[in-house]
Amino acid sequence: MNIVCLDLEGVLVPEIWIAFAEASGIPELRRTTRDEPDYDMLMRFRLSILRERGLGLRDIQRTIAAIDPLPGAKDFLDTLRSETQVLILSDTFTQFASPLMEKLGWPTIFCNELLIGADGMISDYRIRVPQSKLTTVKALQSIGFDTIASGDSYNDLGMIQASKAGFLFRSTEQIRKDHPELPSCETYGELLSLIRGAL
Asked: What is the pTM of this model?
């Protein structure tokens, strides 16, 4: 039994923090897991900037409401879901993901959670489990699934490497250079072909 595990941001939708960086005029928030392997360090950096600027959850959600899936993403996902089970594994947050899941036809997503103060400010965040993508893939394997995984960032490497088959999708030049053993592609057609070949 196969299940495909996909990253969300950079694979199916634009990077939320980059979109918010552009909307808010704060270029420092453009930094993502494509640039920073240490997720906790990245989130602490982001939250400190939000506190300094007095920006809360609603400010980010206004930006998210205007984000659409990447061109071709929904068709790719619909086709894939008609052929096999698909699970989106993301380090985003439930408070960010819901409007994006609606636009993608409500696929299943496992992600994290923000802790919000009474003032609407983000006080902290809660990771579902440590190394959530890799941990989830191993849990799926422990109950009889063969996993096939794809993502674009440092935090996707664990699930890609641990899976029966794994692919980099629209990744950075540095990640591709560091991991020449991982097949890499740039289009949904290519990714669909790779996944079908592994099913």
From this structure: 0.90
Question: Could you count the other beta carbons within 10 Å of the beta carbon of residue 177?
Answer: 9
pLDDT in tens, 96-109: 999 999 999 999 99
| Domains of the chain, start order | 2-13+69-111+129-198 (3.40.50.1000)
Q: Is 190 a catalytic residue?
A: no
| 9 carries an active-site annotation | yes
Catalytic residue, chosen from 9, 15, 91, 156, is: 9
| pLDDT tens for each residue of 36-85 | 788 888 899 999 999 999 999 999 999 999 999 999 999 999 999 999 99
Active-site residue (options: 7, 91, 152, 156): 7
CB-CB contact of 196 with 76 (8 Å): no
